[in-house]
């Protein structure tokens, strides 16, 4: 296969916390684990340049309370991204499955509804040992990964937001220059339908 000559715009969020505001929702259930996940997330954000004033931590009783709280925070438009921290450990009954499924579903729904990235940092483990391994031992610290994810997604959303402000629908303006100009693609200057209707109404009145 020939190596392609296409050089598409490469849009990525930088791993720099500059200018970001990040919310963290921490579940208190199994806080022996979630405290370590929180520490990992804060460590990652500190290493990417965040100051304490840029981060707010909200505590909730258990994983099931993460979605509604993260959604409420997202709706304030105060945060570029929000980390949801929890730890669900399998017990003897099917309760585990309910908590895991509904928490994941709720967080996913909330981020789609609000458009604010909600970083899912909820460990779902069969044993405490598995959770410990993922909260700073053998398997790293998933909180640290979540902290990096929150910074990267926060910056990415800002970038996409800036592009959207100057871009026409369909063919947009990429960072550092216009894709339309570079590729000789006609710029789409179409106004949204509502705007066009307004213009037509005003024209008829004249
Ligand atoms: N919440 C957790 O965060 N982890 C668990 O392991 C867990 N278990 O096993 O029950 C858990 N349950 C509580 C749940 O999240 C709610 O807080 C509770 O049901 C009240 O709504």
Please describe what this structure looks like:
This protein has 206 residues and is of the alpha/beta class. 47% of the residues lie in helices and 18% in strands. The protein contains seven helices and eight strands, in the order βαβαβαβαββαββαα. α1 crosses α5. About 15% of the residues have low confidence. The structure holds 5-nitro-6-ribityl-amino-2,4(1H,3H)-pyrimidinedione. The site of 5-nitro-6-ribityl-amino-2,4(1H,3H)-pyrimidinedione has 16 residues, from β3 and α3. 5-nitro-6-ribityl-amino-2,4(1H,3H)-pyrimidinedione (INI) binds next to β3 and α3.
Structure class? alpha/beta
CATH superfamily heading of the largest domain: Lumazine/riboflavin synthase
The strand count comes to 8
The bound ligands are: 5-nitro-6-ribityl-amino-2,4(1H,3H)-pyrimidinedione
Uncertain runs with pLDDT below 50, 5 residues or more? Answer: 171-201
Average of per-residue pLDDT values: 86
CATH-defined fold name of the largest domain: Rossmann fold
- Which range best describes the helical content: under 10%, 10-25%, 25-40%, 40-55%, 55-70% or over 70%? 40-55%
> Radius of gyration from the CA trace?
22 Å
H/I helix tally: 7
| CATH architecture call of the largest domain | 3-Layer(aba) Sandwich
- The domain count comes to 2
Tell me what portion of residues adopts beta-strand conformation: 15-25%
H/E element order: EHEHEHEHEEHEEHH
Major sheet characteristics:
4 strands, parallel
- Tertiary shape: globular
